What does this fold into?
Amino acid sequence: MTAAELLEQALKLPREEQMKLAHDLWVEADRPYEDPTEVEAAWGAEVGQRLQGIVDGTIAGVPDSEVRRRFGL
It folds into this structure.
């Protein structure tokens, strides 16, 4: 199966499954992480840092409407 055929099939999936697939492919492509628990721990730490930055005012959030505009949603 070609990449174009895979994409055609993936576009038929519900949006949530498309996002899960995209995430899983990104994780696989973004080595050196071999262990999925290491990836999850890294994302957990990143989310925690971003949340703390929002709480303490050192990071400004981006409104949902702006994110959707940027990504054409």
